[in-house]
Amino acid sequence: MSTPNICCICLKPLCTKKSIECHVCNKLSHFKCNYLNFVDCQIIKNSNQDWHCILCAKNFFPFVDLNDYRFDVVTGNTRKYLVDDNTLVLKPPHNLSSLFNQFNDLTTDKNEDTENVLNCKYFDVNDLRKLDIGNNQKKSSLSLFHLNISSLPKHIDSLENLIASTQINFDIIAISESRLNKDNVHAHNLNLQNYSFEYCPTESSAGGTVLYIKNSLSYISRPDLQLYKSNQLESNFVEIINHKKTNIVIGCIYRHPSMDLEEFNECYLGMLLEKLSKENKTVFLMGDFNVDLLKYDKHNLTNEFLDSLSSNYFLPLILLPTRITMSSKTLIDNIFSNKISQNITSGNISASISDHLPQFSIIPEIFSNVSFPKSNIFERDWSKFDKENFILDFFSVDWKQTINIETNDVNKSFQSFIENMNLLLDKYAPYKKISKYKLRFKTKPWLTQDLQKSIEIKNSTFKKYIRAKDKVTKSRLHEQYKEQRNVLSTLMKQSKERYYNDFFQKNLKNIRNTWKGIKSLISNSECGLFIPQTIYSNGTTSSEPNDIANSFNSYFCTVAKEIQSSIRYSFKCFQDYLNNNFDMSFFISPTDSTEVSDIISNLTTDKSEGPNGIPTKILHLLKNDISHIFADLFNKSFSTGVFPSALKIAKILPIHKKGSKLECNNYRPISILSNLDKMLEKLMHKRIYSYLETNNIIYNLQFGFRKNYSTTLALLSLTDDINYQLDNGKFGCGIFIDFQKAFDTVDHSILLKKLSHYGIRGKANDWFQSYLSERKQFVSINGFKSDLKEIQCGVPQGSVLGPLLFLIYINDLYSSIKFCKVHHFADDTNLLHFRDSVKSLNKSINYDLKQLVHWLNANKIALNVGKTELVFFKPKNKRTDFDLNIKLAGKKLYPSSSVKYLGIKIDENLNWKDQQNSIAIKLNKGNAILSKLKKYVNNVVLRSIYFSIFESHLNYASIVWGQNVDSSNRLFLLQKRAIRTLSSADRLAHTNPLFSSANILKFYNKISVENCIFINKSISRHLPEIFQEWFIFSTSTHTHHLRSGSLGILKVPSFKTKSHGRLSFRTNAIYTWNNLQKQFKDFIFSNSYYNKIKSFLTKYYFNQY
Question: What is the pTM of this model?
């Protein structure tokens, strides 16, 4: 027994009442020296389990220096302890095991007789491969991985290689210190194969967290649990849906070293643990907490950190140092959980990506052991397709007899044709089931076997380094490891560059493969086709594949009808808004084999043939002969007014939009129709569109789905009105209407009556009635199909005729509006009105909005008031005399400073600052991508990428918003940076010769060229009629045959302000035209084709450079 009056720890006298005896060394020590209070001691004394004093615990505890001495902070003495130096395997002391057992008793209500030992140690990649958790990983276990990566964009390739080399399909991969911000996250391909991606950006140069969740897991994001403080703390959380068991909450946390630990403990961690304790769920908290658990007995705040966790039943799964340098060892990365059980395997992986070791943990029997079929996809096997014999067999069929052209039964004829074609195809290209590869990581193609072997050598050296005891040996290994790491990093970069250079050179003429390669480098978007294994719909949970497909189909088929049913009854009838009936009538002209053959030629082979379709490659193969058969079938449909039932079936693929992946309403349906259906629809579209345009039936300010119309023209028409009225000092309102699923809620009976009103009567109307009625759809998910359901309203999604039918349906909306000017681009609708006073404007707008609601209710189209926006346009330096009070369907609309309409931001002052700022953000991202790709692609490919990801943003509707851009504008400066990247020039290099050699116009010069081309098209009457009177020659006697340059001068409209007059599109374009026309007297712009003008001016500007 120890001396009764001396504490074995502090060596000071003690009172027996305040002491406790160790069951290992049999010595007495103070409560406080063991960090215990009186209650703790009573629990220990009354327990049957052994208790160790802190000195004995340190003999086994891993949070120690592996040298053979320890510095006692209490006495200042150096003491020797026994540590097993030959292994880094954790050997928990009995009291720690006791703590784990007590924890299990509290959380699982199990009393185990056997000791529960946490299996935590250092593992290398080979050790992990030996674990029975790779491809044979039990579906009931949960596998976790965490790494402080010190920049995910920089080390994403190394991360992928490490994960692949372990042969473990980790369920969750948590990354701390990702160094991702809102700008750079889209400039890199950060996808991991078969994983979803959730991230929390950082606002500093460090920090940021990422969670990769395996696609086979169903989860929801938990932003309510997020811990965040700018520049000091980031985190993100998800909840895994665990069918028939408790759900699992997983979080990744990064606490910056600069954050006050006391603040973190009290204001953030404490609140999080309180929330989690109320949910009674299994929780895993991973991350870099920058709290060194090795100092738990020396640092009060560290002790409080552990105390907060343990008091809420959270214990660490990692008990060994996670960051080891030449001079220090710290345990700052960890995985904490309230689920501690036997057979947990956890530890650090001795592989170096950053200066932190990766952590992992395998937790058994946590998931329901339910197996799900991978896929049920069948495709035709073309590997043994015999083209010659197939053609011979095709000609051996009496197709006229097969389709029975003499009868009027269209459905029977089409069905017979499809069945006989399928019999032939089944003979020569039978269906086979497609086996899905197991979800596993694959190493990158540029990671050669030699490189992988070098990685193993580097990791082996690193493992020896962290285990070395002798300082000289440790220093030598450290230098050797650094040299191997640096050389390997260079070799990997060179290999990646060489691989992609070879790839792009090989696929220089293959656009599709080229863009696949580009996306593999820069794309950061998930595949929207993946569907989780659990779906919530109408209060029920579906987990079986067919049940999930039926849930989606039920939602997609009923959502539009439910919206329709919520529309208020209108005392007005839709026919009240239709003008007198048209005298003209539409007749369907027959088709012929030549027209059908042209349509077949334009079908692309990379698209699915759809339900009851014929593979496009077969249609191309038999084009000259099968076109006669189709001409007969299609004419039969036209003449009888019957659309074949076999072509009225749609295959639906759900695509995730945003929000929880477990809710059907967060998916949009993608409809795939038969290619035979599209052929027939194209024939009808050609005929009906020609009729509508010839008779000027479509509203002149409808810019959607019409030849020679575009979003740019729609925006020009709208903004020209705004500029004109503001220049004249008037107040205005723009109401940007949002309809709720307008295409899907079209009422069939109303549409058919409107078709009849516009002259589409008789057989033509019968054909459209047949086309719209009894349409059905099914949802397909990985080959598992739902039941067929009938579609009761809406125009067919994915169809050729659907958009045109919608234009007809909405064509009379403008007639319900008295004061406002109505602009449409399909269903994107804008009401615009100006008045001299705000009071009269308010009155007029409210009147028109009431009339709009009456029209919508009568036509069964629902408003989305929450997404409808109002912009109040006020002349500069003019005071308002009244406060706007605009209401729509009883709800007040509040003015927005800007609104996004047809892809551009229209602000209340029409100065385009918001739009240009938005473009600048995209161009910055484009520059980052160009810089990243430059070392992987040649100049030809890089130039193509420039036009796709950079110039495309500059070009879209630029003549609308770019008239005020000059050489000092930020957008032009960003363009100069891109040109320097394309030309491999210094960042301060003069860009004039670079633009010329790259054959790329400066942005503001391009605006000038586009202005002149637009005017030329207007004068030549190649634009819609509303733009043909925008430009008037100053000489009334002008003719296109006169060669005098002065006669090409346009009349400049009068204006009162610079911002809305001089810099408006129309005025600025005329100034550009006139200045150039005066300069080039021998080149009459109005007498030239616009392509010639473009060539002429481009050459002119290049000469200026």
Answer: 0.80
